[in-house]
Write a structure and sequence with these properties.
mainly alpha, about 0% strand, about 220 residues, globular
């Protein structure tokens, strides 16, 4: 895009718009991320997690620069890119030096999504839905993930990377073929007391997830 002076004005938020309008790109990113996390997450855990955290830090800096208009000039763009790279390196290094912080985060993250997955399974099989049930299940699985991260860290890394990798891989396909309920939409419908309808394709994705999880776990 261009601003009033006619120079090119860059915006990282445009990337978000592009991904929203081109679901194949979002799907491809999730497919690749799922394969990397699921198949190499345990073997190269510090490198994978450090790189992912560094990428998030880089994007955070660039998004902040975009919001405040610091990418509107060439000089500002160069400075923000340098700061983003520095932030990525610093965060990646810190995470690799403090790996148990990421193991804890992984346990909490995986525990929460396990709760979401279990709740979706109950909804799909019984048609019964309850916001209270969703909150309780997610709270239990999240706390369990936190506990496991401190007591069974090595096993948790294998289990969590297998779970997250297969989940991302499965969700990547949903961007191509659709017919899968968005998690936030499900939350909103349950909170509003609306019926959550799962189509038959949900069970195909379910089987893809289970197969991917087993494959990642024994890889």
């Amino acid at each position: 895009m261009s601003h009033s002076t006619g120079c090119v004005s860059y915006t990282v938020l445009g990337i978000t718009k592009f991904l929203n309008e081109n679901v194949w790109a979002s799907g491809t990113i999730l497919l690749v991320a799922g394969l990397v996390i699921g198949m190499a997450g345990r073997k190269m855990f510090p490198h994978v997690i450090g790189s992912f955290a560094g990428l998030m830090a880089m994007m955070g800096v660039l998004i902040a620069g975009s919001i405040f208009g610091w990418l509107a000039s060439t000089a500002g763009l160069i400075i923000m890119i340098i700061l983003a790279i520095a932030a990525a390196g610093a965060v990646g290094w810190f995470i690799r030096q403090s790996i148990w912080i990421m193991v804890t985060f992984l346990g909490i993250f995986s525990g929460f999504f396990l709760g979401v997955f279990l709740t979706s399974t109950v909804i799909g099989m019984s048609g019964w839905e309850s916001m209270t049930f969703l909150i309780i299940v997610c709270a239990i699985t999240t706390i369990s993930g936190f506990y496991a991260s401190w007591k069974h860290g090595e096993w948790l890394v294998l289990l969590s990377t297998s779970f997250v990798g297969s989940y991302f891989f499965m969700r990547g396909w949903t961007f191509y073929f659709g017919h899968y309920p968005n998690e936030m939409t499900v939350f909103s419908q349950i909170a509003a007391g609306e019926d959550v309808t799962l189509e038959w394709q949900f069970w195909i994705y379910y089987l893809v997830f289970i197969g991917g999880f087993i494959g990642n776990y024994i890889w």
